[in-house]
Amino acid sequence: NQHKGSRVILQSDFANETTKLSILNDGVFDQVASTLKNVYPHMKLVVPALMIAATDARYMHDISDHVFRVCPFDSMKEDKHTVHADDERLSLDSFERGITFFSQILKAFVL
Predict the structure, then answer these.
(1) Greatest Cα pair distance in the chain
(2) For each successive 10 residues of the chain (111 residues), what is the average pLDDT?
(3) Do 39 and 97 touch, CB atoms closer than 8 A?
(4) How far is CA 60 from the centre of its chain?
(5) Sign of CA pseudo-dihedral 41, 43, 49, 53
(6) 77: Cα within 13 Å, side-chain hemisphere
(7) Quick one: pLDDT at residue 81?
(8) Which residues are CB-neighbours of 12 under 8 A, at least 6 positions away?
(9) Is the dihedral of CA 32, 34, 35, 39 positive or negative?
(10) Cα within 13 Å of Cα(87), Cβ side
(11) What is the rounded CA–CA span in Å between residue 75 and residue 92?
(12) CA 11 to CA 22: how far, in whole Å?
């Protein structure tokens, strides 16, 4: 892909197509938001946002209209510099709450 401007040419050697938008108005996102608030009571607002990382979630769009990239690990704010680095870590409390979130989501949608 090449994009030409008045004096600039941008060329990308690698790019992914954008993923389709997930449905937000049928209650599924509301259940995800409610579960996050249940696990993290201090969380007052959960909103959809743009994620620029290429996660494995991009492969799920063929089988679901509801693909939400959720990171339910609160300590990622403090530990984000360790992601994919030496000594990658999460706090134990954050890890436990993340497991609780995924357990509740599975119970709500699968079990």
Answers:
(1) 57
(2) 65 76 91 94 88 81 89 78 82 91 93 66
(3) yes
(4) 13
(5) negative
(6) 4
(7) 78
(8) 1
(9) positive
(10) 2
(11) 9
(12) 29
